[in-house]
Design goal:
homodimer; about 400 residues; four-stranded antiparallel sheet
């Protein structure tokens, strides 16, 4: 007998048939004698429909407090329907909203952080042998206002419950059956991994593998919650995410592509001290996440600074720099959005020199030019022309794994 | 400067355009310096859509606790959207769910009663000069579970707030512009009333005038809350509902039709004491509302008992009686659903004999047979064949008012 937390995304509960599919997965584990807590997102397109309604009212953007009030209705609907399906199949169940489940957050509407999770109600319901269905993505702040946790918030909700309840396993159900060494739709030699370390998963998530939300992996690592990524449509084991994993023959764990990148170049900067500080201090004030940074000497004793940001923050980054034009001499700002970042990730690579050169060789052989390079202990990333992105993933994957 | 509570039904906020229409009505009063609290129902068809989703999952009927969880999402969506529209128009506003607004109810899911209303949050928001938009129809019980107040619940929410906050006026916006002496779609001489007494309104609501929910009128009477029924589409005064109203020349206040009636006849009952008690005790145990009761002597020293119930409870009433067949001798039970109840209401009639005879005369002249009669101090009701219902309303209305 174990305590299992299961999280289902919006597509897993998109219609009545899928709701019953999920209900059966839950009941299957419950009938084996396990305690089961379920976290669920809003159904399929509900969130998009609600956003559309809000945009009809205020295209410039409603207040975040009211957006949270609106969007959190989506999970309320899905938990009630899932509970009804479990009832119908004859098992005891109760649905709980974020605040009923004890999610107390800070007041940053739309991107709230969990401050604490009061599990009293969940524990009581589990003690009554109820299956507990919790609305993901939502909580309340100290004023009793509803907050939402931002992108991937339901994953975070699930891991938070698993951590607070000392769950034996936290299963994240998605529409893929695990974590692959590369996108299996693009690379036919991609393999599903049985296990992956938290750090490797974090790099892959950051790099656009998009299987698991980063905050939830960070939290799982911090509280040592064993995760499993698996499919709600196929009944087979997925990929376990944990602290240490068995060594495998391959050096690298996966190859990821991130197309959500823009490259910003500030060209012809006066070569005086403090230029980089001025730029990145302002960028930080605008709350823009900078990834790779490259500084190079330009002509005429000027220099260029190039960096990458998430694509949708490209224009904002230009704005940020233009806002300090008075205190910063430069010739031009160039924004390039047709770029992609390709990364190899693997905890083994730090003790194995030659990973970088093997990657660069594979790209060179394929005639793909490298624009920027960034490395960490368990990752090597390169920026390339977006049109070669899929090809690059394939040739790099083949060089290491295929 | 006054404190005004305004309630808008689902059709008043059915789409973005109507939401803005309502927002403008609210802002108009707010800008005059009034404090404004708004109670709103779920948008247009939202509730029906949610019920449909639930029926897809469990056609036999989900638990009421989960239905309340599901349906209360409807008002959550509408309060957020209305608040966004008010924001967009530049006024300070905050939306509150039932539990945030302090609605504490008993645990009778789907038909919960308000136990108390903790107005602290509403008072704080009013003190901050916010327009307060409250989700009607919903509250929480002592376990922190969401409850709903049943049919017309948003009216009840509005009157409860008006009573607790000592509001100067509680305006109920509908798609009609007030209370009429008869249904204006059926009777072209029907007149809108400027004022009507609580008791008269109660009789009219019970009798199927369906402008205001009965529980809300009862509560308004109990706490002396002045109500106004008016249209959200036309900017003109509606009908005020209050304790005492000016005497008018007409004896009667209105003519109402109630088609939601079934007549049950228990025929050939043994003529022994306690028969009526046995029947109506059992009917009460089944929680069936009995309206008119008629007992008559039948043939062969038997008697018949005939009574009316809401149409959808007709079958249940038959079940109730059949369940005591062992202790009750009768020949047959006859259910007649093609009946309607026509009533005249007016506080003035008790001091004016002849109202009943004038009503019966009008029906006789029109060739309409009366099946049953019931009277109270301010009301006379007759049961007739359903197919003559509209004609009956017209001839009775013309006799008194037209």
């Amino acid at each position: 007998m174990a305590l299992i937390v299961k999280k289902f995304g919006g597509s897993s509960v998109a219609d009545a048939q899928r709701v019953f599919n999920v209900a059966n997965i839950i009941i299957n584990d419950y009938k084996k004698g396990n305690d089961v807590i379920v976290v669920v997102s809003a159904q399929g397109d509900t969130t998009d429909d609600l956003i559309e309604k809000a945009e009809e009212i205020n295209p410039a953007g409603a207040s975040k407090r009211e957006m949270d009030m609106l969007l959190s209705a989506g999970e309320q609907i899905s938990i009630a329907l899932l509970a009804m399906a479990i009832e119908k199949l004859g098992c005891p169940v109760i649905s709980l909203l974020g605040w009923q489940a004890g999610f107390n957050t800070d007041s940053h509407h739309s991107i709230a952080r969990i401050k604490n999770l009061n599990t009293e109600r969940i524990r009581n319901e589990i003690a009554k042998k109820n299956i507990v269905v919790v609305a993901g993505f939502q909580g309340i702040n100290k004023y009793d206002d509803i907050t939402t946790l931002g992108r991937g918030g339901s994953d975070t909700s699930a891991v938070a419950i698993a951590a607070s309840m000392n769950a034996d396993l936290c299963q994240i159900y998605t529409d893929v059956d695990g974590v692959y060494t590369a996108d299996p739709r693009k690379v036919d030699t991609a393999r599903k991994m049985d296990e992956i370390a938290y750090d490797e998963m974090l790099e892959l998530a950051t790099l656009g593998a998009q299987v698991l939300n980063n905050r939830s992996v960070e939290m799982a690592k911090k509280y040592n919650v064993e995760l499993e990524v698996l499919s709600s449509l196929e009944n087979k084991p997925g990929t376990k995410v944990k602290e240490t994993v068995k060594m495998e023959k391959t050096l690298i764990r996966g190859v990821a592509k991130d197309s959500n990148v823009a490259r910003i170049s500030v060209v012809g900067l006066e070569d005086t001290p403090g230029v980089a500080f001025k730029i990145f201090n302002k960028i930080a004030q605008y709350k823009i996440n900078v990834d790779i940074i490259l500084q190079s000497v330009g002509r005429d004793s000027t220099k260029d600074i190039t960096f990458t940001v998430p694509r949708d923050q490209g224009k904002l980054a230009v704005e940020a720099i233009e806002s300090i034009k008075g205190g910063l001499n430069y010739k031009d700002i160039v924004v390039e959005e047709d770029v992609a970042k390709i990364s190899v990730v693997g905890a083994g690579m730090e003790s194995h020199p030659g990973v970088a050169s093997k990657m660069f060789e594979a790209l060179y052989d394929a005639g793909i030019n490298i624009q920027m390079i960034s490395t960490s202990e368990i990752k090597i990333s390169v920026l390339i022309d977006a049109k070669y992105a899929d090809k690059a993933v394939k040739v790099v994957h083949d060089a290491f794994i295929g």
